[in-house]
Design brief:
The complex is a heterodimer. By secondary structure, chain A is α+β, with helices and mostly antiparallel strands. Chain A has helices spanning about 5-25, 35-50, 55-70, 75-105, 105-110, 115-140, 145-180, 185-260, 265-285, 295-310, 330-350, 400-415; strands spanning about 315-320, 360-370, 370-380, 420-425, 430-435. In chain A, β1 (about 315-320), α11 (about 330-350) and β2 (about 360-370) form a beta-alpha-beta unit. Chain B folds into 2 domains: about 1-140, Rossmann fold, CATH 3.40.50.2300; about 145-255, OB fold (Dihydrolipoamide Acetyltransferase, E2P) (Beta Barrel). Classes of the chains: A alpha+beta, B alpha/beta. At the A-B interface, β2, β3, β4 and β5 of A face α4 and β10 of B.
């Protein structure tokens, strides 16, 4: 190692940083702005200096720390970066082994000729990229864990990181003391294969834990919603029974007036007693009545939840589900997110209105022959809305969350080609129509 | 002709509706023709015969019809037969589903069953609204100022003067249409749509058709046109010349 040339060190730093870069951008999905780019370059220069002074291991640590600082969640950023590095090294060794198998060029020979090594990296980078994309794809397939599961995930990953680092340190010390003998490659390969097997097992365990956690949470939530829903239905039933009772009484009273031919009294009675009852019946007709027509459980749950939230804000919700909705051709997670965001926005906007009779959100769910439609409309105080701006990513009218919500919708729309969102604004009523084709 | 139809299963209410309609002043206009009041949807469908392009129907439909077809299905049927027709939904307060009705049948209005006086007022409003829309619509159709976009089973009927611009949508073969009060996506091809539009539209690039009446200003240096709603678009080199020629004839627009 001591007799390596400066060119070689620069070359290896370059290749290593490219590999690291590929790994980092695919697995933790760090977005590179100009600021991050500059930091990365500075960090590379620092690494080269350190490498020239023959210190390799700290460079990794520095890289990891810097990436951690750059990412939103520092701890997870650091963990992911370290994992990325480990994955990178593992794949490097695997690729070396495959390369040796294909071309017969060993690592020692590789190190002696720059052309050989360039050829190797031309093979290595695309393979690395493809494999990492595959891993990322598998990660995306699983439901996004919430905060609680993130904690479990974080701790498990930290343990994993410690094990990996220990092996790495051992490996580097071994390399340093033996000055790269030819059989070192096989030794390394065995070590890292063991490491990757260990990682695979651990990651599988973690994913299973996270998945179960998420499921239990969802189930608990649903159970809670179901409980509230049952209570609501019971209340409705009680009020219906009360009405039946009243209804019989009213009929008897009317019969009495008719029998005794007191038509004027009948008239007064009708106006003062019957008509208010009918109006109150209409007014109290709860949004939940038609929720039983919603047969898609996740949508039923989110609708119920948001209607309850609206009523907490003293906002009335009118739910129209005339025909039963059996199926919506959209992944449950996307469906609940998009409907959740639209309803949150509607509630937020309606909450600004002070006149009580105007504080109403209308929701309609329609099952059609070839698709389904969800319509949400709410009143606003605004005189004018720029309908184009409202769809753009950075648009915010109040606070950060709102704009973010709409940009999330855009993202979901890009992922799913069968959904369309039409927006209209007429007479200070804002309507969002979401068409989902089958 | 504006042809008026009624469908209501209950005889007394049917007669009342018919009375209100025939006593309305507008109904006596010779452009208005009362066709009939029917007790079942099948009877009404039978009465829908061949119509000329200048015929638009005004339908008063009860929702709860006690027949194999409810008012809703009847309205959907009528929509297919007479896409521009005016549908008025007669219903009770509790059966009212405004958003669903609006989406599926785009009714002209609603008549909520309440006191007779109230119903009569609502009917008069609806006839008045229908008649004025009928007249503008007939004029617009004759001048070729309406266009229909579609996506799946859904149709968007638009008056071209309301369109601000048409641009490519988020998927291939879709268009995004911005009008005065809505934005939606429909299937279509820009050059085909352009052929259907009147002369106050111009295709300014491969992606965009704009309504020239909505131009706020044109920047001759950067070739950017700004519309009155605040949006701006790049103009392709070829269209720029014809745009300038067009605009020089109308001096109201700022050219910088």
């Amino acid at each position: 190692m001591n007799n390596l040339s400066i060119e070689y060190i620069l070359f290896s730093i370059l290749t290593n940083s490219i590999a690291m870069w590929i790994t980092m951008t695919t697995i933790p999905r760090i977005k590179f702005t100009s600021k991050t780019f500059i930091t990365f370059v500075l960090c590379l220069i620092l690494c080269s200096i350190l490498s020239l002074c023959n210190i390799i291991y700290p460079t990794v640590v520095i890289l990891v720390i810097i990436i951690g600082i750059l990412s939103n969640n520092h701890l997870i950023g650091m963990i992911l970066a370290s994992i990325s590095y480990v994955i990178c090294v593992v794949f490097n060794y695997i690729a070396l082994a495959i390369w040796q198998y294909i071309t017969g060029v060993t690592q020692a020979q590789l190190m002696s000729g720059m052309i050989n090594e360039t050829c190797f990296y031309l093979f290595f980078f695309p393979t690395l990229y493809l494999i990492l994309r595959g891993i990322r794809w598998i990660i995306d397939k699983f439901p996004r864990p919430d905060k609680l599961s993130y904690k479990t995930l974080g701790i498990s990953l930290l343990i994993l990181l410690l094990i990996c680092s220990a092996i790495l340190v051992a490996n580097f010390t071994y390399e340093r003391t033996h000055d790269y003998p030819v059989d070192l490659m096989n030794q390394n390969l065995k070590l890292f294969l063991l490491l990757s097997a260990l990682m695979a097992i651990l990651i599988t365990i973690i994913i299973i834990i996270v998945y179960k956690d998420a499921r239990t949470n969802i189930e608990l939530n649903e159970l809670e919603h179901l409980k509230q829903y049952t209570e609501e239905v019971e209340n409705m039933y009680t009020s219906l029974r009360r009405f039946k009772h009243d209804y019989a009484n009213i009929l008897f009273s009317m019969k009495h007036y008719i029998d005794t031919a007191q038509y004027r009294e009948l008239n007064t009675y009708f106006d003062t007693q019957v008509i208010p009852l009918v109006t109150s019946l209409d007014a109290s007709s709860p949004a939940l009545e038609l929720l039983s027509n919603m047969k898609v459980p996740e949508l039923k749950s989110i609708l119920y939840f948001k209607i309850m939230e609206a009523s907490k804000h003293n906002i009335k919700t009118i739910l129209e589900i005339k025909w039963s909705v059996e199926h919506i051709n959209l992944k449950a997670i996307d469906l609940t997110r998009i409907v959740g965001i639209l309803l949150d926005n509607a509630i937020e906007e309606t909450d600004l209105i002070t006149e009580l009779e105007k504080r109403t959100i209308n929701i309609s769910c329609i099952q059609k022959e070839k698709g389904s439609t969800i319509i949400i409309s709410n009143p606003t105080l605004k005189e004018h809305i720029n309908l184009v701006d409202i769809r753009k990513k950075s648009h915010t009218t109040k606070g950060k969350n709102r704009g973010l919500g709409l940009s999330n919708i855009n993202e979901i729309m890009k992922k799913n080609e069968n959904i369309y969102l039409s927006t209209s604004f007429v007479d200070q009523v804002f309507t969002q129509t979401l068409d989902i084709d089958d | 002709m504006l042809n008026i139809y009624i469908c209501e299963d209950e005889a007394s209410q049917r007669e009342f509706l018919q009375d209100c309609i025939t006593h309305n002043k507008i109904s006596k206009n010779d452009k208005v023709n009362f066709i009939g009041a029917y007790g079942t949807p099948t009877d009404l469908i039978k009465s829908l015969t061949d119509k000329s392009t200048n015929d638009i129907g005004l339908y008063f439909l009860d929702i709860d019809l006690n027949a194999d077809m409810d008012g809703f299905e009847l309205a959907t049927y009528i929509r297919k037969y007479d896409p521009r027709g005016f549908i008025v939904i007669v219903t009770t307060h509790s059966e009212m589903l405004p958003l669903t009705f609006q989406y599926m049948i785009e009714p002209l209005g609603y008549i909520i069953k309440d006191s007779k006086n109230y119903i009569e007022n609502q009917i008069n409003d609806c006839i008045c609204k229908a008649f004025s829309r009928y007249e503008t619509l007939i004029n617009l159709t004759n001048e070729n100022k309406t266009i229909t976009f579609s996506r799946g089973s859904r149709n968007f009927f638009v008056i071209t003067d309301d369109i601000i611009y048409i641009t490519l949508g988020h998927l291939t073969h879709t268009l995004e249409i911005l009008t005065n009060n809505s934005i939606f996506e429909a299937r279509g091809n820009l050059s085909n749509v352009y052929k259907l539009l009147p002369s106050n539209f111009m295709q300014i690039s491969r992606e965009t058709i704009i309504n020239l009446d909505f131009i706020e200003k044109v920047d001759t240096n950067t070739h950017i046109v700004t519309l009155r709603n605040g949006d701006s678009f790049c103009i392709s080199h070829r269209s720029f010349k014809s745009l300038i020629i067009y605009l020089s004839k109308r001096d109201a627009i700022v050219i910088k």
